[in-house]
Amino acid sequence: MTELHWTERDGVSLHYKLSGSGRSLVLIHELSGTSDSWDEVLKRLGGGYRVLRADQRGAGLSEKVRQPFDVTTMAADTLAVIAAAGLDAPYTIAGIASGAAIAVELAALLGRDVEQLLLCSPALKANPDRRDYLLQRGAKACSEGMRAVIDVVFERSFPEDMITDRAVYDEYRSRFLAIDPFCYEQANAMLANVDVTEAKSKLECPVLVLAGTRDLLRPVGHVRADVAGIANCDLRVVESGHIMILQAPEAVAGALRDLHQSSGVKA
Looking at the predicted structure, is the pLDDT value of residue 266 above 50? Predict the structure, then answer.
């Protein structure tokens, strides 16, 4: 059974979900996503986990703010949610795309309380070639609505040849259209300026990175460069596009199981 909860940090209401029992697992969603983005992974993960997943500020059922935010803000929000949920250390933290940058910042804050880190299609440093595009995309959505940008977004993040389940794709597309346009603009600005180089140098835990063979936004070579400097890092290439928690959920679930088994814990 999934429990729905809310907490507040600095005057912002944050929605989160708790499910299962066992090892503490924190899941962080992508820009354009919500906590529901992890549904397909959780269907395949199996038991043995106390799972916490939150809607980031401006997303899902969390408050739609009217102020800018950055990766540091999102990490602090997640830390507050962990405290509100009473989730016990040690933690396994997993993040997808921009959520991977938040995961790195959060892991740096938590230090030795983090047992393992999983980064899927990670966006850890801004791509200068895409900065103007991200800012313009956010501004267009804010002025014209989400439908004005959905085609250009999905042609690279969720192209037709990556649809393995039409119902999953249709649901994700509908959630995208329901995004608050101002918050989407701020999330794009966050991604356009992201750089967690300092935080990743502080990581003390094992880190498993998944890169997609067909990821048009964060190809394998780009991911390899992004994770350079992480001391205890293993890169695994999987058959997927950018949103691998929906496009290759079994591979992501398998990676989470492998992390727990490698720590000597059977999930």
Answer: no
- Which residues does residue 234 pair with via DSSP β-bridges, in sequence order? 208
- Using DSSP's 3-state secondary structure scheme, residue 256 falls into helix
**Is the overall model pTM greater than 0.70, yes or no?**
yes
Q: Where are the alpha helices (DSSP H) in the chain?
A: 39-45, 71-85, 98-110, 128-144, 150-157, 166-177, 181-192, 197-200, 220-226, 244-247, 249-262
C-alpha–C-alpha distance, residues 112 and 198, integer Å: 17
Burial, 36: exposed, middle or buried (Cβ in 10 Å; 0-12, 13-18, 19+)? Answer: middle
Please check whether residue 87 is in contact with residue 51, taking contact to mean a CB–CB distance below 8 angstroms: no
Alpha-carbon distance 253 to 92, whole Å?
13
User: Sorting pLDDT into bands at 50, 70 and 90, what band is 177?
Assistant: very high
Residue pair 12/77 in contact by the 8 Å Cβ criterion: yes
Query: What is the pLDDT confidence band of residue 265, given thresholds at 50, 70 and 90?
Result: very low
